[in-house]
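Bumping my old thread because nobody answered last time. Still need a sequence for this structure:
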């Protein structure tokens, strides 16, 4: 079956759907081809025992994520705050501590070390421009080393280094030695600093979407109607360097589409799996060969009630000793049960994914009992998702660059190639890796294409 459109969009995640909506509103004929049997990509609602939705993929939004918040508002969706009242639990050294506010209690020397390391990270992050981090004065030096190397030179105490390893796992779902220091600085800068990335109140974990975050994509897709084609994995894009000759996009089992321009709105490792005929310019191809995804297993554990709240606890816990190192209260909006959500990230996801399901569940529950006591032993439901095993995500939360990538190939990240345009959260200049970045990239790519269609 052959179809035609002005613009064909590969991928019905937030980026592809936002681009499609903008283009349609400007009178453009659009077709969105989605590999899965659903829209939303890295956003996905699961179901709790009572039927309430629970986010098994991306979920939180926070202040300064203007593109995401605006989109949520436009779609008529509402947000509500992540539960954060009461004491948080931290295990940043040999002692388990309870604290309120933002700063965990710990050895003052380690706390001072964390403070000076964060100060330096925020300072270099401010100097790395998010639109072209490869042009920063210190880009070469930062891109020649891993974030781990930078941390070893900057953080002076083992406690400080352990803290930043945990933070790296929580923010990037990767290890400090995986990524270049330039990528880390770019990512922190594009979020407005480390605090906005890691905080609940006033940070990226502040709010949730009523009905679950996948509703953002579901509402966008509903507006687009039959312009979104599911079960249509794109296998090949034929194009010509002269943009005027357009594109021919082949899917496995879905339509073949002829269009004037194509938007590839999938994560970089997925973009690298599509066959391009003729092949892409070397810089673009080398770039996507070098942008792996992070690795995370997200686990929601449901109880008949949020029992930790009765004990004066917020449900927030962090540990450098436990694989389930970051936990939050994820009780659904209707309060029908209590939910704790946590993450096996980076190296912990590697190890846990090699376990039998029962063994992995036991590990998670043991860690929850360690944080919250014996009441955590008997959940109503255990809902896990290993995003590295998702054929059309290949990991999460997002892609990152190892050393020597941004400075050598960074300009190819957003630069169109003939009639081919690139979107997706990894191409954003604010909050890359987040829903907000995905929305930004959708708007940007639509603005890039519109003048070229007239
Ligand atoms: C566990 C987890 C937790 C997260 N937490 C948060 C959070 O709290 N807050 C936040 O803001 N962000 C979070 N994120 C990240 C956020 O979900 C993503 O940044 C955002 O959803 C990415 O949107 P996107 O459109 O760029 O890409 P995707 O959502 O990856 O969309 C790409 C789409 O392309 C499709 N596709 C891939 N290959 C092909 C092909 N060959 N042909 C056709 N279609 C194809 C995919 O199926 C997918 O639907 C999290 C992600 C995960 C997984």
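Sorry it took so long. Here it is:
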């Amino acid at each position: 079956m052959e179809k035609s459109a002005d613009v064909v969009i590969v991928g019905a995640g937030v980026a592809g759907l936002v681009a499609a909506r903008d283009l349609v509103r400007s009178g453009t004929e659009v077709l969105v081809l989605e590999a899965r049997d659903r829209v939303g990509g890295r956003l996905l609602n699961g179901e709790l025992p009572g039927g309430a939705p629970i986010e098994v993929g991306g979920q939180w939004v926070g202040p300064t994520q203007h593109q995401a918040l605006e989109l949520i508002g436009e779609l008529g969706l509402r947000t509500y705050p992540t539960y954060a009242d009461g004491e948080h639990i931290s295990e940043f050294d040999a002692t388990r501590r309870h604290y309120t506010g933002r700063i965990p209690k710990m050895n003052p020397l380690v706390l001072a070390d964390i403070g000076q390391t964060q100060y330096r990270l925020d300072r270099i992050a401010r100097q790395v421009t998010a639109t072209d981090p490869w042009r920063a004065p210190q880009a070469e030096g930062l891109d020649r080393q891993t974030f781990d190397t930078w941390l070893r030179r900057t953080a002076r105490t083992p406690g400080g280094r352990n803290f930043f390893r945990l933070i790296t796992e929580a923010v990037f779902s990767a290890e400090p030695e995986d990524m270049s220091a330039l990528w880390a600085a770019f990512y922190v800068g594009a979020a407005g600093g480390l605090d906005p990335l890691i905080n609940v109140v006033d940070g990226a974990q502040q709010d949730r979407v009523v009905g679950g975050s996948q509703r953002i994509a579901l509402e966008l897709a509903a507006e687009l109607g039959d312009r979104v084609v599911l079960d249509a994995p794109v296998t090949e894009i034929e194009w010509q360097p002269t943009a005027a000759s357009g594109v021919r996009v082949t899917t496995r089992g879905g339509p073949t589409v002829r269009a004037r321009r194509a938007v590839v709105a999938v994560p970089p490792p997925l973009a690298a799996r599509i066959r391009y005929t003729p092949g892409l310019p070397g810089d673009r191809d080398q770039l996507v060969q070098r942008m792996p995804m992070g690795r995370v297993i997200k686990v929601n554990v449901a109880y008949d009630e949020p029992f930790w709240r009765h004990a004066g606890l917020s449900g927030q816990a962090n540990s450098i000793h436990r694989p389930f190192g970051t936990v939050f209260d994820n009780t659904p909006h209707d309060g029908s049960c209590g939910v704790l959500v946590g993450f096996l990230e980076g190296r912990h996801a590697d190890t846990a994914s090699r376990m039998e399901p029962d063994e992995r569940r036991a590990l998670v529950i043991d860690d929850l009992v360690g944080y919250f006591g014996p009441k955590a032993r008997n959940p109503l439901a255990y809902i896990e998702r290993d995003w590295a095993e998702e054929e059309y995500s290949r990991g999460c939360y997002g892609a990152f660059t190892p050393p020597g990538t941004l400075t050598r190939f960074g300009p190819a990240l957003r630069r169109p190639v003939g009639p081919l345009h690139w979107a997706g959260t990894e191409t954003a200049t604010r909050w890359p890796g987040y829903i907000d970045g995905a929305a930004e990239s959708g708007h940007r790519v639509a603005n890039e294409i519109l003048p070229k269609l007239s």
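The chain has three domains: 2-42+214-280+417-453, 79-102+200-209+294-392, 108-198. Let me know if any region looks off to you.
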